[in-house]
Amino acid sequence: MSLLDTVSCLDGYDPNALRVDKARQAILSCLAQVKDVEAVQVRHALGRILAQEIVPRINVPAHDNTAMDGYAVRYSDLAAAETRLEELGTALAGKPFKGKVGAGQCVRVMTGAVMPAGTDTVVIQEIVKTDGKTVVIPPGQKAKQNVRYAGEDLKLGVPVLQPGAWLRPAELGLIASLGIGEVKVKRRLRVAFFATGDELASIGEKLKEGEVYDSNRYTLHGMLSRLGVELTDMGVVRDDPAALKKAFLSASEKHDAVITTGGVSVGEADFVKQLMAELGEVLFWKIAMRPGRPMAFGKIGGAFLFGLPGNPVAVMVTFYQFVRDALLHLSGRTDDFAIPLLQVISSEKIRKVPGRTEYQRGILYKEKDEWRVRITGQQGSGVLRSMAEANCFIVLEHERGAVAAGEPLQVQLMEALA
Ligand code: AMP
Ligand code: MG
């Protein structure tokens, strides 16, 4: 089935005034996921996508053990008043107590120590009186307190991770806790990108009249690197059909996705559009959004194509709103990776007309226990400083009109724990 067949049957598909949510849906409905799998050491699996199920062959923890430093006792020994117990010895993490604990006896235990045979409850050391031989336990203890049970974290035979899981530091630790040293992951997505434009100079060149330094390849490099894809920077390609054709063909041969910037509007030198259509199947969209109206999505050979606008802010916005999710899906992720929308208070009025989704650049800050947002200065799609100053996108929904000061609105955080 062609891309056009796939997307044109989507409800509300209109290439000349495509809503953001529809464009996202259209892209996702066309994508397939990477199938190739490779084995990597756990440490190298960070940021990768799991391609196997992880089933524990052991319990974690492997034994019942103490959660606190204190004394392991038999709860049935404890009286309503104080209880005196004989201290038999000590158990440390990794150095279990060998004997059995009988009535009226206890063992000094350190966090992580295996619960000595016969004991079921741990009394913390801070509330206990001891002379090294006899221990006095105050009343008011609860049965089984301060004990961590075998399999409480991970249970033998019960699957913990599924194919498609994104491997973060927590997952690496979890896999390591099972004693597993190597895992199967999806191969990295291969992504090529280039910038188009006769006005673009590269770093190291002297700016001639009318030229600008190419910044899009640098923002793309940054955004793609963080997604953990294998990337190929193909440089700047002139607004020249032969050069563009060569670039598209070589990029699409060896990559899963190709990203370009510029040349998708209706300007005279915008050959990119024509060429994309000639070489593969490409859909041109006017998306009801700001910034970032024109965009192309298509396929050349086996590679998905994202023809982003040229304006630097539009590149970043369309990347985050469409390309990011598409690449994560292509990579094989199955968790819900949509960027969350958080509701905060607008500290100022913001101009907005209904009929398009806007992604203004905002600064989220805390004032008197309340999270508020204000816009960075100028919001032009060429003002990259607005991105650098921002820590969030202010997402003004399609139907929404102007925002008054004090009104709630939604934001997407640009960075969190990374
Ligand atoms: P275009 O979409 O090709 O018409 O470009 C729109 C605007 O973005 C023009 O002002 C371009 O000069 C600018 N632009 C395009 N590509 C880049 C780039 N790689 N780096 C910086 N600015 C760019
Ligand atoms: Mg151009």
Written account of the structure:
Helix content is 20%, strand content 29%. The chain has 8 helices and 24 strands. The strands form 6 sheets. The chain has a 6-stranded mixed β-sheet with strand order 6-3-5-4-8-7, with no helix packed on it. The protein has a 6-stranded mixed β-sheet with strand order 14-11-15-19-18-16, with helices on both faces. The protein has a 5-stranded mixed β-barrel with strand order 20-22-21-23-24. A hairpin with a 2-residue loop joins β21 and β22. α4 runs parallel beside α7. The longest helix is centred in the last third of the chain and has 20 residues. It starts with a helix and ends in a 5-residue tail after the last strand. 34% of the residues are buried. Adenosine monophosphate (AMP) binds next to loops.
